[in-house]
Amino acid sequence: MPLLNVSGLSKRFGALRAVNNVSFAVEEGEILGLIGPNGSGKSTTFNCIAGLYTPSGGSILFEGAEIAGLPANRVCHKGIGRTFQIPRPFRNLTLLENVALSAYFGQDRGATRANCWRFAEEALALVGLPTDARAVTDGLGAAALKKLELARALATQPRVLLADESLNGLDHSEMEQAADMLNRIRREKGITIVWVEHIMGVLMRVVDRVVVLDHGEVIFAGPPKDAQANARVVEVYLGTETDA
Amino acid sequence: MDCQLDIFFLEAVLNGLLLAGLLALLALGLNLIFGVIDVVWICYAELVMIGMYGIYYAHKGGVPLLLAALFGILLVALAGAVLHQVVIRPVLDSAPINQLLVTGGVLFFLQAAATMAFGVDFRNLGIRFGSITLADMSFSYSRIITFGVALAAMLVLWLFLSRTYVGIAIRAIAQDRQIMPLMGVDQRRIYLITSAIGGGLAGLAAALMVLQYDIYPQIGLQFGPLIFMICVLGGLGSLIGGFVAAFIISEFIAIGGSCFATEWGYAIAFLFFMVVIFIRPQGLFGGRS
Questions:
Q1: What is the mean pLDDT of each run of 10 residues along chain A (244 residues)?
Q2: Partner-chain contact A93 B168, CB within 8 Å
Q3: In a domain, B108, yes or no
Q4: d(CA B156, CA B31)
Q5: CATH number, position A171
Q6: For A152, which of B165, B181, B183 is closest by C-beta distance?
Q7: Which helix (H) or strand (E) holds A161?
Q8: Any chain B CB within 8 A of the CB of A102?
Q9: Which residues pair with B161 in a beta bridge?
């Protein structure tokens, strides 16, 4: 049984069909890339899974149980963490407070005050940020803010991590490091990752499979090397490169 | 005009300081709610009035003053939570003007209901603490007690907001509402707790005000506009801003009242408020206008 099974998912905003009958499954321990051009429905799909949007139709099964329509805090408690494309740290809190908040509220499994601080420190250490209680968010660069975003999601002790454009705004070496970090998180923590990204090269190196969306529909699902050879994917996603 | 830098001027300054404690406490409650929920409880002073009546009737019914005060605090904390659930929650996604009108409706409802229930008589507990005289300056004990308790309450709230997970969540949600549920935070619960705390602060203010002021259904009109002005002057939602603005406005009222007349003190305070808002619409410490 897949860990996460999205089936016939649809989301409409008035007359606009942002996501239309999207289905894919995520196996435990894999990194699945969810790619597509702008407006293809990637973030809407993420928001439906994370509970920020109520789907217009379809089903989202997590560990065999329906989670479609649950509020975001309940989805988080079930074990699904989500990062944002644009990091949104709480500037009035320290780094440790930012992450400890996730550790405390993100678990519905009897987290205590003491182990919340420990979870927070572990998450900060895992992404390579200082665990000093006085460290603040002021002055953090794009890469560090991405790491903080990741640490906050990890502190909720998720089984599935929804990583939204983790490479956005990073330079080439930071991208490679970020991709390696996601791989390490999967390897060391056993966390399953669904990764939305538009920077293909780095993503293809790390993911096990990709699902390609276009105009809210799945046009391809399979290994990365097959995606790169698929004519329709090349047309809708890489079209500008082949045209050139 | 009789305004000289003499002992009476110093007395006015110090009495302004004592008044500031109470006003800062009231502004803190209103600012906390606005900062977290983004709704201005224009009826906040009417909650104080409810608390004052609660304490009055509890004490007159034989309950010792301290217990009556505790009852008043809990009563208004409950009223704050009920106000949120019944009135605010349904309009959370509405336009700010609708939210303002709804809480304005509650203001007039509470005033009218209190008039019907308690009449228009001015009531007081009949407790006189007396005053202390220092170097020809006189300070009432009730004002000193009010100042001390208000500062202590603010300290306790600061500790709560900085040392507890719920307190940290309250500070965080004031900054970014959308991301909190993704961290597992039940936003509705935080809103409810914040409303109860805001109500509790109004209840505490009521417990302190019954020591100094008569109780009547329109007492909210005496304090409501003043609290709102302090919050806007400091920057709506800014706890520090409200604290500082309370001291500024209190000194305008006290010194203006000492040099001219009490009404002039209020007039000068409001004039100062208007000038600041013209220059800095977001208030002294606010990030948004």
A1: 94 92 95 90 94 95 94 93 86 88 80 80 88 82 87 92 84 84 90 88 88 92 89 75 39
A2: yes
A3: yes
A4: 16
A5: 3.40.50.300
A6: B183
A7: strand A160-164
A8: yes
A9: none
pLDDT in tens, B270-282: 999 999 999 998 8
Residue from A101, A102, A137 whose CB has the most chain B CBs within 10 Å, to mutate: A101
Q: Which of B7-11, B144-148, B232-236 has the lowest mean pLDDT?
A: B7-11
Q: Does residue B47 fall inside a structural domain?
A: yes
- Residue ranges making up the domain that contains B37: 20-224
With contact defined as beta carbons under 8 Å apart, do B124 and B214 qualify?
Answer: yes
Phi, psi for B61 (deg, rounded to 5): -80, 5
User: What is the number of structural domains in chain A?
Assistant: 1
Residue B59, pLDDT > 50, answer yes
* Bridging pattern class, strands A57-62 and A65-66: antiparallel
**How many angstroms separate the CA of residue A206 from the nearest CA in chain B?**
25
- Least confident piece of the model among A190-194, B36-40, B218-222: B36-40
pLDDT at B4 over 70: no
Nearest to B182 among A76, A104, A107 (CB): A76
CB contact under 8 A, A92 and B185: no
Chain A positions touching B176 (Cβ under 8 A) are: 88, 90
Give the domain extent around A85.
4-243
Say how many residues make up chain B.
289
Torsion of CA B62, B67, B70, B72, to 10 degrees: 10
Contact status of B185 with chain A (Cβ, < 8 Å): yes
Tally the domains of chain B. 1
Q: For residues A76 and A51, what is the distance between their CA atoms, to the nearest angstrom?
A: 9
pLDDT-derived band at B136, boundaries 50, 70, 90: confident
Residue A81 with chain B: CB contacts under 8 Å: 182
Residues of A in contact with B180 (CB under 8 A): 73
B149 pLDDT tier (thresholds 50, 70, 90): very high
Contact B184/A at CB under 8 A: yes
pTM of the model: 0.84
Mapped onto helix, strand or coil, the DSSP state of residue B70 is helix
DSSP assignment of B151-190 equals HHHHHHHHHHHHHSHHHHHHHHHTT-TTTGGGGT--HHHH
At A159 the pLDDT is 94
By Cβ distance, the residue of B171, B176, B183 closest to A156 is B183
d(CA B252, CA B154): 22
Q: Do residues B212 and B223 make contact, with C-beta atoms less than 8 angstroms apart?
A: no
The pLDDT tens digits of the residues spanning B110-121 come to: 999 999 999 999
- Here the ipTM equals 0.80
- Name which residue leads in pLDDT, B170 or A236: B170
Q: Which of A73, A84, A93 sits opposite B184 (nearest CB)?
A: A73
pLDDT score for B5: 63
First to last CA, chain B: 37
In a domain, B128, yes or no: yes
